[in-house]
Amino acid sequence: MRRSRRHGKSLLLVCVSVVAFATATPATSGPQCFFQGLGFLPGGNSSVANGVSANGKVVVGSSNAASGRNQAFRWTAASGMVGLGFLPGAVDSIANGVSANGTVVVGSSIDATGHGPAFRWTAASGMRATVIGGAGALCACAVPVARNSAAIPARMESRTVDLVI
């Protein structure tokens, strides 16, 4: 009997210690991370985030819409997901990157043949084609912008060039 009482007290002490350890609050508490769903464009059912501003307040990517077309978007907590539109003749647009301050969005515009120019979007100017490689270029895909938004690294037919805007 004595032996099992001692064993029982030891087991109880271990259980209390584990519960106390598991529920203890750390002495310093770091930033809390959480998941924020971005939603979809009206009528859509999928979206993909491709870039985040340096302060984490602006997210860009693409979402399908009721038309079945993929459209570039810019998301903020205040405005939610906002479609950026299409260049003339394009069937899809995809935002690939955003400036550090979230004001400039760059991406790709795709026509029915699967090709098209890169674009640059700002609230003031909207979506504008960015010609890379001159006439006859098949596809240009703008990727994340530099911190100062003065250069956009772009990929064109497996070549990388810096486009100064």
Which features does this protein show?
165 residues; mainly beta; Neuraminidase; disordered N terminus; disordered C terminus
Descriptive account of the structure:
The protein is mostly beta strands. The chain has one domain (47-164): TolB, C-terminal domain (Neuraminidase, 6 Propeller). It contains one helix and eleven strands, in the order H-E-E-E-E-E-E-E-E-E-E-E. A four-stranded antiparallel β-sheet has the order 1-2-3-4, with no helix packed on it. The protein has a four-stranded antiparallel β-sheet with strand order 5-6-7-8, with no helix packed on it. The radius of gyration is 25 Å and the shape is globular. The model is unreliable at 1-25, 135-139 and 154-165 (pLDDT under 50).
Q: How many angstroms does the end-to-end distance come to?
A: 85 Å
Major beta sheet, specifics?
Answer: 4 strands, antiparallel
What is the string of SSEs from the N terminus onward? HEEEEEEEEEEE
CA-atom Rg in angstroms = 25 Å
CATH topology: Neuraminidase
Helix content: 10-25%
Strand percentage: 35-45%
Task: Estimate the mean pLDDT confidence.
Answer: 73
The figure for the number of domains is 1
CATH architectural name: 6 Propeller
Shape: globular
Question: Tally the helices: what do you get?
Answer: 1
